[in-house]
Design a protein that fits this description.
Radius of gyration: 16 Å
Shape: globular
Structural class: mainly alpha
Distance between the termini: 32 Å
Order of helices and strands: HHHHHHHHH
Helix content: 40-55%
Strand content: under 5%
Number of helices: 9
Length: 206
């Protein structure tokens, strides 16, 4: 049985506001979003971050946005050294009018996305939470998170690593991925013919 994470924010960007952003991300997305670096991973990263926020202080809006932008510009499912920087550029272009975030939040998000693959652990706390949220999902790639490469005390706890790793190993997918995120993403995906599930979003051929 999985612990259900409450994804309803009190002071951060509402979940509903993520859907237009996901639509914009989909318009340039190059890969199959059902795969290892796609939507389910993004959702688990978001929920990992929300769990860390229960004991760590950070900016919830930035953490939610990091989840959907950090891997948004991958061009493969393997080693892709520039994808963090490309995700940062996409975040800046998408959010640069500052209608959803402050300048400080945007700058923090850009740094978190840009450097999330560099193995760093030193940064302001919100960025550390972003990096930990991503690294806690490494078990999906058969890599058990090493506490030496985790930034926050909450992430380094054995129970946190076990909780996140079990979800990753079993490819746990929150219900909103199928019912909210996927329909928006497939509708706006710039190359829908490359997504094998494009006609089977809800388990039925259309």
């Amino acid at each position: 049985m999985y612990t259900v994470i409450d994804v309803s924010p009190s002071t951060s960007i509402p979940m509903i506001e993520l859907l237009p952003l996901l639509a914009k991300i989909a318009q340039q997305y190059q890969l199959d979003p059902t795969q290892i670096h796609g939507l389910t991973h993004w959702a688990r990263v978001m929920e990992n971050g929300l769990r860390l926020l229960k004991t760590e202080e950070g900016d919830e809006t930035v953490i939610r946005l990091f989840a959907i932008f950090h891997d948004a510009c991958r061009i493969n499912q393997s080693v892709d050294p520039g994808h963090g920087s490309r995700g940062a550029i996409l975040a800046e272009r998408t959010l640069g009018d500052l209608s959803l975030v402050t300048k400080n939040q945007l700058d923090t998000l850009i740094q978190a996305c840009r450097d999330h693959t560099n193995g760093k652990i030193s940064a302001e706390r919100t960025i550390q939470i972003c990096w930990d949220a991503d690294r806690l999902d490494l078990a999906r790639a058969a890599i058990i998170p090493n506490p030496d490469y985790l930034c926050t005390p909450a992430a380094r706890l054995a129970q946190t690593r076990e909780w996140a790793s079990q979800r990753a190993l079993k490819n746990y997918s929150p219900s909103y991925v199928k019912h909210e995120w996927e329909p928006v993403f497939i509708k706006n995906l710039h190359h829908p013919s490359n997504w094998p599930n494009k006609n089977n979003i809800n388990g039925q051929q259309t």
